[in-house]
Amino acid sequence: MKVRVAIIDSGVYAAHPHVGGVAGGVAFDENGCRHSDYVDRLGHGTAVTAAIKEKAPDAELYAVKVFDRALSTRIASLVAAIEWAAERGMHVANLSLGTARLEHEDALRAAVERAQSCGTVIVAARDDEGVRWLPGSLSGVIAVQLDTTCPRHAYRVATIDGRTVFRASGFARPREGVPPELNLNGISFAVANVTGAVARTLQGLPEPAMPALIAALVAGAQQ
């Protein structure tokens, strides 16, 4: 099947050679109001998209812009983006972002549950440097941790508190002439690298149910 991936981030510069175009997109302002300018002016969303494209080249990629001039937004924008992805039938939503603010947990939990009911798999960071992140730490989300020792084209699996957690490299797709440590890196790209694996795995599944997806991901992990 053709897997549709929503990249909820700072938008996408679709003409970038590591991206090669997107299937569509949308943007949300800080109040959750929709508009059409999903062009990336920060570079983060484009780099995240490139990492996903590298690992799942046949996926249909959709830019869902929630960041504009800075890598920050309000909860209304993030909830609206998740709901858009679910309503549009996205198979996967990449959230290379998160919040540690507990007052947003109920709103994000409701958005995750609506996405689940529509068959949209959310991939997000579980924690970073000891801080619990939302929505990645919620049940029903593909939870990701940063693993600085993991090769970029692999991922690992751990069990934490009875839950399957995926660990991946935090390096973005390489840029010619730029040392990896000077390129964009961090938990954002661990999430993107896992999203690429999720999209690639979904393409080979006859039924994209979460239990089958988790089992297939675990089977494909680096030991």
In short, what is this structure?
By secondary structure, the protein is of the alpha/beta class. The protein has helices at residues 44-55, 75-87, 105-117, 187-203, 210-219; strands at residues 4-9, 24-28, 34-35, 60-65, 92-95, 121-125, 127-128, 131-132, 142-146, 155-160, 163-168.
Could you name the key traits of this structure?
223 residues, Rossmann fold, 5 helices
Folded structure, characterized:
The chain is of the alpha/beta class. The protein has one domain (4-219): Rossmann fold (3-Layer(aba) Sandwich), CATH 3.40.50.200. Helix content is 29%, strand content 22%. It has helices at 44-55, 75-87, 105-117, 187-203, 210-219; strands at residues 4-9, 24-28, 34-35, 60-65, 92-95, 121-125, 127-128, 131-132, 142-146, 155-160, 163-168. Strands 3-2-4-1-5-6-9-11-10 form a 9-stranded mixed beta sheet, with helices on both faces. The protein has a two-stranded antiparallel sheet with strand order 7-8. The protein is globular. It starts with a strand and ends with a helix.
What portion of residues belong to β-strands? 15-25%
Q: Span between N and C termini?
A: 28 Å
Number of domains: 1
The oligomeric state is: single chain
The CATH homologous superfamily is named: Peptidase S8/S53 domain
**Helix and strand succession?**
EEEHEHEHEEEEEEHH
Number of helices: 5
Order of strands, main sheet, comes to 3-2-4-1-5-6-9-11-10
Q: List how many beta strands DSSP finds.
A: 11
CATH architecture: 3-Layer(aba) Sandwich
- The residue-averaged pLDDT reads 94
Q: Spans with pLDDT under 50 lasting ≥5 residues?
A: none
Name the shape in a single word: globular
Q: Mind telling me the C-alpha Rg?
A: 16 Å
Q: CATH topology, what is it called?
A: Rossmann fold
